[in-house]
Amino acid sequence: IIDVSDPANPQTISVFDDIAGTAFNIFIADDVAYEADYNGVKIIDVSDPVHPYTTGEFVTPGSAICVFVEDGLAYVADKESGLHIVDVNDPGNPIFLSSFETDDWANYVVVRDDIVFLTDRRNGLRIIDVSNPEEPDEIGFFDTPGFAKKVDIVDEIVYVCDTSSLQIIDVSDLESPRRIGEINTGGALDMVIEEGFAFLACG
Length: 203
Prior knowledge:
Elements: E1 2-3, E2 11-12, E3 25-29, E4 32-36, E5 38-45, E6 53-64, E7 66-70, E8 73-77, E9 83-87, E10 95-100, E11 108-112, E12 115-119, E13 125-129, E14 137-142, E15 148-154, E16 157-162, E17 165-170, E18 178-184, E19 188-194, E20 197-202
């Protein structure tokens, strides 16, 4: 954990290394960090950032590489094992609720208003209704030209970076998403959408 309150003088204030695998992704919600570490998700209390400690964890059957938390539920992109939904209202006692099987690798997940947007590598974007988290229901799909990696959403526009391009998709009709723009990037692996700009990491 790095203190960047003075951007010109960043300081490491603690190191948390109680993980079994490789740390791939982290999500912060209400002073709790959720860390996807390939073996599952570690739940870490960071209310005191100098002394972080484990409050709970759950092991996934695949390779956990992304976690998103909303309204007490953790959504885990578990690579070859698809999407898993876990109740983390009690961080010390996570409870598995359901899974959604993907055709390829579940790479990245974001959630907005009970709708999951999940990248499925060769199979593009999956749109899943999780209003009943115990019975996730796919309601839309959009195939991207490369291997879908990162996904983000701004209003009713979804951005997917894959291994060939940035895909810009209108999801105002969740059941019939449509591409409204694209640009060749030569291999986008990560991105951030901010104030009308897409910042891409390509390689």
